[in-house]
Design brief:
Aspartate Aminotransferase, domain 1; three-stranded antiparallel beta sheet; globular; binds pyridoxal-5'-phosphate; Aminotrans_V_dom
Length: 354
């Protein structure tokens, strides 16, 4: 029986995608061969890569707008340095909203001057800084739209006069944004799109070619664009499953449709956190993430009782990250509304028993 999976990443994907992917591992397109034993230069796989790239651009509304989509390896963590390698010539600006943003900052400092335009570290990253300004002479501003660990989310699309780079690992394809305001978007697949092993990078081509340094081939976006994500062997399985998930999303009605469902799930859970006297939310109310809800018990002495109740309800992956404690419910695109209903019932069950 399928569990209610609130895991933060790797995470739940649509059940039908798991089924299609498992079939392709045995026999792909009726070829009598597995997806993972054919050449990545075989036309059957090239079609997968083309599809995955065009679906990504289509769902983001970025077709024919000068953008390219790449599926690279090395996780979002490699993008922390690839972004700086390709774009940071003299000076960059970073918004520090959590662990992942801090890690991106650490890497970029290796390449040039860095201005931290604002930080919410003073309150353990439980809010998104507001009203900050960005120097006009920076090469780009880097933000993390959704802070997976702390459960905060940037809900607006910033309008600064400098190129905008965003780590969207944990909320890409979950809510509508004006993606054309972003010059570079990257996202590890394993939070909302596919298995670990590939990272989607969406780049406005015009921002490249402006740094003085020589870039190693594997980190050079221009090379990956010229080779259409086939400079070296791509992670074929991860790209294939990502393609299936993007197709699933398109069939559902795209980002507009999934955003409504995600809002419904988030409202259901946050309403219970606010109503139930046994729980308190971690993130500032206006900055709460619709993907990762962080919350704690008011009285830790009932922890074992609550943990027993949700585990008995076939819920998986609810423990919070060690830097926040408590609980984190990740409600990615593929998580059914019913799973959130089951969690809310568990929260109401402990209220009756505690
Ligand atoms: C998980 C995560 C990362 C790290 O991704 P890897 O693929 O493990 O390198 C980076 N940024 C955000 C926002 C994340 O949620």
């Amino acid at each position: 029986m399928k569990k209610h999976n609130f895991s933060a990443g790797p995470c739940i994907l649509p059940q039908e995608v798991f089924k299609q992917a498992s079939e392709a591992v045995i026999d792909f397109n009726g070829l009598g061969l597995s997806l993972i034993e054919i050449s990545h230069r075989d036309k059957n796989f090239i079609e997968v890569m083309d599809q995955a790239q065009s679906l990504a651009l289509e769902l983001l509304g970025l077709e024919n707008k000068g953008y390219k989509a790449l599926f690279l390896q090395g996780g979002a963590s490699t993008q922390f340095l690839a972004v700086a390698y390709n774009l940071l010539n003299k000076k960059s600006a970073y918004l520090n909203t959590g662990t992942w943003a801090s890690k991106a900052i650490k890497e970029a400092r290796l390449f040039g001057e860095l201005v931290e335009v604002a930080s919410s570290k003073d309150q353990n990253f439980n809010y998104i800084p507001k009203g900050f300004s960005v120097p006009s002479d920076v090469d780009y501003l880097h933000i993390t739209t959704n802070n997976t660990i702390f459960g905060t989310q940037i809900k607006e699309d910033y309008n600064f006069e400098v190129p905008l780079v965003a780590d969207m690992s944990s909320d890409i394809f979950s809510c509508q944004r004006d993606f054309s305001k972003y010059d570079l978007i990257y996202a590890g697949a394993q939070k909302n799109m596919g298995p670990a092993g590939t990272t989607l990078v969406v780049i406005k081509e015009g921002i490249l070619g402006k740094v003085d340094r020589t870039i190693p081939s594997m980190l050079d976006y221009k090379i990956h664009i010229d080779k259409e994500s086939m400079f070296n062997t791509p992670p074929v399985f991860a790209v294939y499953v990502s393609m299936l998930t993007l197709q699933w999303l398109k069939n559902l009605g795209g980002i507009q449709a999934i955003e409504k469902i995600n809002q419904e799930k988030a409202d259901l859970l946050y309403d219970e956190i606010d109503r139930n006297p046994l729980f308190k939310g971690f993130a500032a109310t206006e900055d709460r993430s619709n993907m990762n809800a962080t919350f704690n018990l008011v009285d830790e002495s009932v922890k074992d009782l609550f943990d027993g109740i949700w585990k008995d309800a076939d819920i998986n992956g609810l423990n919070g990250h060690r830097s926040v404690g408590g609980y984190r419910a990740s409600m990615y695109n593929a998580l059914p509304l019913n799973s959130v209903e089951v969690l809310v019932q568990a929260m109401q069950a402990i209220e009756k028993r505690a």
